[in-house]
C-alpha cells in the first residue's frame, strides 16, 4: 500500500487513516512460514504543524513450533509502531525518522513488514512452563516421564551390582 503524502504535508492538523491486510504468507522465519493469515494493519498519519507522525498497530495470529517440545501451536502477536516521516533530513541525522520517496510517497507494506519482523520473538514456547523433550529418550516431558535407563557411575557399579544381587535373592 502506498500513501501519497505530498499534498497531505501542506495541511496542518490533517489526519490520514489506513486499515488493510498485509500478506506475509511467503515470508520464512526460522525455517517456518508462520504467517498463515494476513497481518491486520491499522493506523494513521497525523500532520502536526509540519511534522508528520505515523502510528500503526499490526496484529496477526502466528503458526509456530515450540522450541522445547516441537509441538505446533498458534499465538497472537501485536506490534505497536510510531515514527516521524520527513521529505529530507537536516544535518544528516535520521534517528527514528522515515524518509519519503522523492514524489512524497511512502511504501507502507515494506515498512510494516520490516517492523513486524523486527519484533518477532527468536524463541517460541507453547507455554512458559514447557518442560520440553528428554535429550536421551526423546520423551515429551509435558506428557510423560523420562524413559531413559539411569546410568550408573562406574565407581559405584560394584555396589549397584551387589544391591541388584541382594534384591534378586530376597
What do these coordinates show?
The chain is α+β, with helices and mostly antiparallel strands. It has helices at residues 108-118, 157-169, and strands at residues 2-4, 15-22, 39-48, 51-65, 72-86, 97-99, 105-107. The strands form two sheets. Strands 2-3-4-5-6 form a five-stranded mixed beta sheet, with helices on one face. It is rod-shaped, with a radius of gyration of 28 Å. It starts with a strand and ends with a helix. The model has no long low-confidence stretch (mean pLDDT 87).
| Average residue-wise pLDDT | 87
Largest sheet: 5 strands, mixed
Beta-strand fraction estimate: 25-35%
Number of DSSP strand runs: 7
H/E topology pattern:
EEEEEEEHH
Structural class: alpha+beta
Query: For the CA atoms, what is the radius of gyration?
Result: 28 Å
Strand order of the largest sheet: 2-3-4-5-6
Distance between the termini: 80 Å
Choose one word for the global shape: rod-shaped
Q: Helix count?
A: 2
Low-confidence stretches: none
Percent range for helical residues? Answer: 10-25%
Amino acid at each position: 500500500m502506498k500513501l501519497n503524502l505530498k499534498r497531505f504535508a501542506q495541511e496542518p492538523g490533517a489526519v490520514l487513516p489506513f486499515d488493510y491486510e498485509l500478506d506475509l504468507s511467503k515470508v520464512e522465519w526460522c525455517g517456518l512460514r508462520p504467517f498463515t493469515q494476513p497481518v491486520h494493519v491499522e493506523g494513521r498519519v497525523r500532520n502536526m504543524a509540519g511534522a508528520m507522525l505515523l502510528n500503526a498497530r499490526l496484529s496477526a495470529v502466528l503458526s509456530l513450533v515450540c522450541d522445547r517440545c516441537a509441538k505446533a501451536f498458534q499465538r497472537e502477536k501485536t506490534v505497536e509502531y510510531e515514527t516521524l516521516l520527513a521529505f529530507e533530513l537536516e544535518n544528516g541525522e535520521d534517528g527514528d525518522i522515515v524518509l519519503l520517496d522523492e514524489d512524497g510517497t511512502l511504501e507502507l507494506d515494506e515498512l510494516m513488514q520490516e517492523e513486524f519482523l523486527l519484533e518477532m520473538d527468536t524463541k517460541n514456547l507453547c507455554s512458559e512452563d514447557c518442560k520440553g523433550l528428554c535429550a536421551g529418550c526423546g520423551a515429551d516431558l509435558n506428557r510423560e516421564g523420562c524413559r531413559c535407563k539411569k546410568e550408573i557411575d562406574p565407581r559405584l557399579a560394584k555396589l549397584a551390582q551387589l544391591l541388584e544381587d541382594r534384591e534378586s535373592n530376597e
